[in-house]
Design a protein that fits this description.
Elements (H helix, E strand, L loop, with lengths): L6 H5 L3 E5 L4 H13 L5 E6 L4 H13 L5 H7 L3 H8 E5 L13 H10 L2 E4 L10 H20 L6 E5 L10 E3 L18 H17 L4 H18 L5 H16 L5 E6 L1 E3 L17 H8 L5 E3 L8 E3 H14 L7 E6 L9 H14 L16 E3 L2 H25 L5 H25 L3 E3 L2 H13 L15 H16 L3
Parallel strand pairs: 1-2, 1-4, 2-3, 4-5, 5-7, 6-13, 7-11, 8-10, 9-12
Helix pairs in contact: 2-12, 7-10, 8-9, 9-10, 13-17, 14-15
Length: 493
């Protein structure tokens, strides 16, 4: 049974290695620990950079300088850098570079193997449309390197690997917190093998280079290969495919390492910590928020009654920290956590649309010309066929017509034609990538996460500081007053 004591006490004097340290979740994780437990012993933060100075600069620019760190800045003022440098060691490295994780300094390696107690693997590429070599090397082979590194840490208490709920592919119904076994596929086709995948990827790359293909051609071909390999075994894209492969291999190779596999759903802006609404980069559903607010999205494809599973980033981080404590020292165990809301506090796509409509009606986006963009109700198309018909009628025919007129009138409508062309390409690409999720009928059972929360409540741990209860979210309030304003502030450019 898990030992639940004070989370803050668990973090005190603790040494933690975080990979992918400048990623969205990783920064929130690091900020949280530094803020709530300043007596953490050491955070080793691994990130890609040429050398130590470049790594330091990157961490400062991409993490410390952000709004995310403003509470720490208010608390420490001019002493913030000193405080952070005492608690962290910024390490240039790369999890794709073998089991030393690309760390060149042998003294530092020895020190890490001696000191590190918790390993948190957050290094990944989350791009649905990534090259296959990049996805496989980072998401799958990289995860194996992190596991092998963790095995060398003499004080290791737990390895926390952050995966994604969408390793389930397009399954419908209740999806359980169960592991994938080596070679298991979503469509029942046998022959899935990581060595084969690696070989296919390497040989394709070799062939392309041998033919003297341009970088552009290689990138396009490697993206196609990723989609092809994923879809062959029933996954919709290379991101979720390579994340599923990683889970399989970690489960198979873990030996006596206590392994926690963490599967968040769609991650959105922070709910309350360090303050509501912090977000960075265009995350999954935010491309829709941005497209809609800027007046680019007039029709949308999807089942209006579909439940969309979203979870604020700080809740994911809070749950991560609590699971680290809960599974410390459970030799050889493997526990999977779904962190989402579709079971305990579901929200339908239609409600999201309503929130967006009301928000942008009251606070329209001001375009480059200084004019407010007036949004209307989105035309929701509830099947692929209706979407194709709609696109043909409203866009492809006018585009064809415009192309003819434009040619006749010596390119007079060139700008308009290109603009329409760009809009259509934007929509088509979004649909191709997100299509599988627009009619998604799965909901993610989060029994393990709920059990952990209840056990934490009974044990009296600091669930006010580490809130991960989906039931505490009022969706209308969160979208109208936190998430959409956050996206407008940090993402709209």
């Amino acid at each position: 049974m898990m030992e639940l004591t004070s989370v803050l006490k668990f973090l005190e004097n603790r040494t933690i290695l975080v990979t992918g340290a400048t990623g969205f979740l990783a920064k929130i994780f690091v900020e949280k620990i530094l803020r709530v437990q300043p007596n953490v012993k050491k955070l080793y933060l691994l990130l890609r950079a040429q050398d130590h100075n470049a790594a330091l600069q990157r961490f400062n620019n991409e993490a410390v300088a952000k709004d995310l760190f403003k509470l720490l800045r208010e608390k420490y003022g001019a002493n913030l850098n000193t405080f952070i440098s005492q608690r962290t060691t910024i390490i240039p490295g790369d999890i794709t570079c073998g089991e030393n994780l690309g760390v060149k300094d042998s003294n530092l390696l020895e020190e890490m193997w001696r000191e590190v107690e918790v390993v948190v693997n957050l290094a990944a590429t989350t791009n649905f449309d990534e090259r296959y070599d990049t996805s496989l090397e980072l998401n799958t082979l990289g995860a194996i390197h992190v596991l092998n590194f963790a095995k060398k840490c003499s004080k290791l208490k737990v390895l926390l690997h952050v995966s994604t709920a969408y390793v389930s592919g397009e399954k419908a119904g209740l999806i359980l917190e169960t592991p994938y076994n080596l070679g298991e596929t979503l469509n029942g086709i046998s022959g899935l093998n990581i060595d084969t995948e690696k070989k296919v990827m390497e040989e394709t790359l070799k062939q392309l280079r041998f033919e003297g293909s341009s970088e552009e051609t290689i990138t396009a071909a490697m993206k196609e290969l990723g989609l092809e390999r994923a879809r062959k075994y029933g996954w919709p894209n290379p991101y979720v495919f390579t994340k599923a492969l990683a889970e399989m291999v970690l489960g198979d190779l873990k030996e006596d390492v206590p392994l926690v596999i963490f599967r968040p759903t769609i991650i959105t802006s922070t709910f309350q910590d360090p303050f509501p609404g912090w977000v960075e980069g265009i995350r999954t559903i935010d491309s829709l928020v941005v497209g809609y607010g800027k007046g680019r999205l007039t029709c949308f494809l999807g089942d209006p009654d579909a439940i969309i599973d979203i979870i604020p980033a700080d809740m994911v981080v809070n749950a991560m920290i609590v699971t680290m404590m809960a599974h410390a020292d459970q030799r050889g165990s493997q526990t999977i956590y779904h962190v989402g809301t579709s079971v305990s506090n579901p929200i339908e796509l239609t409600r999201l649309q309503d929130f967006g409509f009301h928000y942008f009606r009251e606070h329209p986006w001001i375009d480059k010309q200084g004019k407010p963009v007036i949004v209307g109700k989105v035309n929701v198309l509830s099947s692929m066929d209706s979407f194709r018909r709609f696109m043909a009628l409203h866009y492809l025919l006018p585009l064809k017509g415009l192309e003819i007129v434009n040619t006749v009138l010596c390119q007079f409508f060139e700008a308009k034609y290109l603009e329409l062309h760009r809009k259509i390409k934007f929509v088509m690409r979004l649909i191709d990538l997100y299509g599988p999720y627009l009619f998604f009928k799965g909901i993610y059972d989060d029994m393990n996460t709920e059990k952990l929360r209840r056990a934490g409540k009974e044990a009296g741990i600091e669930l006010d500081v580490f809130n991960f209860s989906p039931k505490s979210i009022n969706w209308e309030d969160y979208f109208s007053n936190t998430h959409i304003p956050g996206v407008v502030k940090y993402v709209f450019k």
